[in-house]
Amino acid sequence: MTANHSKDPLHGVTLEALLTRLVERYDWSGLAARININCFKSDPSIKSSLKFLRRTPWARTEVEALYIASLDEPPEIPADSPWANHRGRDE
Predict the structure, then answer these.
(1) DSSP per-residue codes, 2-16
(2) CA distance 26 to 31
(3) What is the CA radius of gyration of the chain?
């Protein structure tokens, strides 16, 4: 029996999970800087953002595109992390 795997990176990912991951990665101010949506700028919350994104297809498309792009990027390392200066050096 062969398992069918979808090539769609959004397959099985709820909008809430997607948004939560983006907030964890970029924070609200980072999302607002990347996507010009007021629900990310003015008193942001997951609940209000989900309500807006479900009613506004163009905004949801932009958020989904950012999520897909973020899958290819390595995670950002805070400057105060002990690993901040270690960028794959050969040892």
Answers:
(1) PPP----TTTT--HH
(2) 6
(3) 16
Let me know: does 70 contact 76? Beta carbons within 8 Å: no
Q: What is the pLDDT of residues 9-57, one digit of tens each?
A: 888 899 999 999 999 999 999 999 999 999 999 999 999 999 999 999 9
| Tokens at 74, concatenated | 């390595």
Question: Tokens representing 86?
Answer: 């270690």
CB count, 10 Å around CB of 67?
A: 19
How do residues 52-76 score in pLDDT, each as one tens digit? Answer: 999 999 999 999 999 999 988 776 6
Domains along the chain with CATH numbers = 15-72 (1.10.720.30)
